[in-house]
Amino acid sequence: MKGDDMQDKSLRTKRSGEFGENLVTDIMSKEWGFDVDRIDSVGADLSAYKDGVAYIISVKYRRFTPGESLQEGFDFKDESKLKEAARRRCGATGIVAFIGCFLKDGKQITVCSFINSSHLILLPKRKDNYVFYFDDKNSTFEKLIQDGVIYRVVEKRDLGNSVNGVDF
């Protein structure tokens, strides 16, 4: 039985990652006009092109449970892998897309934030990670957003008569 649980968790993790990649692809292609492709490369999930400029994107998706701290880590080693993947793609710019989904005041909030890999150094650090916050309580993040270092897309959806996002 234990093996089945591990396999189920692995499958959920894979599907969650694919969902995050699809969401980033949708935003970048439909809303911003990028050509986006999925790539299978160490340190990178997507490549995007627009106006002759290439980007390599690492997608970090997280669905938070109520009461959980709204933050995600990005390992220093992953930063090196992303920069190497971007270098291998003829000097493309590395981007990290952080996606967080959580419930707040009866609404499902989806936050998609994009940061250039060269700006990761501006994020708070903890052990071997940069720390990324999804809520509005962190003044460092508010300044980075105001300065255009982090580009953030926020979608709020009223859950109405739904439980855990499932309508009845």
UniProtKB/TrEMBL annotation:
Gene3D superfamilies with a match to the protein in the record: 3.40.1350.10
Lineage of the organism: Bacteria, Candidatus Woeseibacteriota
Gene Ontology terms, MF aspect: nucleic acid binding
Protein name as annotated: Uncharacterized protein
Organism of this sequence: Candidatus Woesebacteria bacterium RBG_13_36_22
